[in-house]
Design a protein that fits this description.
The chain is an alpha+beta fold and 367 residues long. The protein folds into two domains: 10-232, 3-Layer(aba) Sandwich (Rossmann fold); 252-366, OB fold (Dihydrolipoamide Acetyltransferase, E2P) (Beta Barrel), CATH 2.40.50. The chain contains nine helices and 18 strands. It has helices at residues 52-60, 102-112, 117-130, 146-158, 176-193, 204-210, 228-233, 238-244, 314-319; strands at 10-19, 29-37, 41-45, 67-72, 75-76, 87-90, 164-168, 196-201, 213-218, 221-226, 247-252, 255-260, 265-268, 278-287, 291-298, 307-313, 327-331, 337-339. Strands 6-7-8-3-9-10 form a six-stranded mixed beta sheet, with helices on both faces. Strands 13-17-14-15-16 form a five-stranded antiparallel beta sheet. Strand 9 and strand 10 (221-226) form a beta hairpin. The radius of gyration is 25 Å and the shape is globular.
Length: 367
């Protein structure tokens, strides 16, 4: 019998990690376990207060651990000072010294370690060249754009030669166009450097664009870990489906199900072929360029209490447009529905049972 291949080594392993800020209060992070593979890009995401930034700060050594362990390549770093961990942090605000040039900002940590001026400035300039900032090496932060400041902050983090780079919402201060450009650069740098990146974000789109592994958190616990494709197409529970967006969650008699909004079938209520679907009314029509997003209210009991969305390609919408207030019928294929585990904290205050359309078969929930 062939031996089973060992899993790739974990650059970071978190074991039963918890953080409480005061005795008797809810845990900010509640006994989470997580393995982050060496050389991977991992994104921690979730709503505000979910514990993602606290987890990152504990890995960095900027937050004390209440209980549990943090290992870096099987070395326990839980109680080590930040400078001795082999990690570096890139902050949301970039935290550059306004009175220092880009070169001196990057070289600052080497200066604190007693490295000679010539050597530290050479290493700083080499890193600035690597992030395409060598030509602006003598400028101060106030003379640089947001994207240029981010490159300097990245070079400053890399000069300590970390094994893991920790990024705390590094793109949130940038405008939308620059944010898209810089996330592509972050991904490229991560691949070129071969480092493990652990990136905190509240943006589902950002995490899906960057991550090899996504970690969805809520109320201090991990709800799901997986690739962007796995999490978007196979949400583990009701919270993940609702948080990731792009899904309609239906509370049926057999339990909650999720259907992607681009898999919904819509037809005018007056269309004879629409019989057997769920009755709904169009409440919003948003043109988004390549697609149109329709907001609808189901005619359930009580009427209009459950809202859903339908994503239509631009060409399909223009061929058969829908207007606000129009009565429509909804359906979906059974293969496109995903049965969900129920998470009480994510459920709506008053779940509304929705009768399944005729095109859906409840047998699919058990398959």
């Amino acid at each position: 019998m062939n031996a089973v291949a060992a899993p790739p080594p974990a650059a970071v392993e978190i074991v039963a990690l918890s953080k409480r800020y005061a005795a008797g209060t809810p845990a900010a992070v509640d006994r989470i376990d997580l393995r982050i593979a060496s050389g991977s890009y991992c994104c921690l995401l979730g709503p505000s207060g979910c514990g993602k930034s606290t987890t990152l700060r504990m890995i960095a050594g900027h937050e004390s651990v209440t209980s549990g362990d943090i290992l870096l390549d099987n070395r326990n770093i839980t109680n080590l000072p930040a400078a001795a961990r082999g990690t570096a942090m890139m902050f949301q605000s970039f935290a550059l010294f306004p009175h220092l040039s880009a070169t001196d900002n990057v070289a600052f940590s080497l200066k604190m370690k007693g490295v000679g001026k010539a050597e530290r400035q050479k290493r700083a300039r080499d890193l600035l060249d690597r992030v395409a900032m060598g030509h602006l090496a003598e400028r101060k932060p106030g003379e640089l754009s947001g994207g240029q400041q981010q490159r300097v902050a990245l070079a400053r983090a890399l000069i300590t030669e970390p094994r893991v780079l920790l990024l705390d919402e590094p793109l949130s201060a940038l405008d939308p166009f620059l944010r898209i450009q810089m996330r592509a650069e972050l991904r490229r740098w991560q691949k070129e450097l071969g480092l493990t990146f652990v990136h905190v974000t509240h943006s589902q789109e950002e995490a899906m664009a960057l991550a090899d592994t996504m970690v969805v958190m809520n109320h201090g616990v991990i709800e799901q870990v997986g690739s962007p494709h796995q999490i978007y197409n196979h949400p583990a529970n009701e919270f993940v489906a609702r948080f990731m967006g792009g899904h309609n969650v239906f509370d049926t008699s057999t339990g909650p199900i999720a259907v992607r909004n681009d898999h919904m079938r819509i037809a005018p209520a007056s269309d004879g072929a629409a019989s057997g679907g769920l009755a709904a009314t169009v409440t919003d029509v948003e043109y988004q360029g390549t697609y149109v997003l329709l907001g609808l209210a189901l005619q359930a009991t009580p009427p209009g209490r459950q809202n859903v969305s339908v994503l239509m390609g631009e060409a399909a919408f223009l061929a058969r447009p829908y207007a606000q207030g129009q009565a429509v019928s909804l359906a979906w294929a059974e293969a496109d529905a995903r049965a969900l585990a129920t998470t009480p904290q994510a459920s709506p205050p008053h779940p509304i049972p929705v009768p399944l359309p005729a095109t859906f078969h409840t047998e699919a929930l058990s398959s």
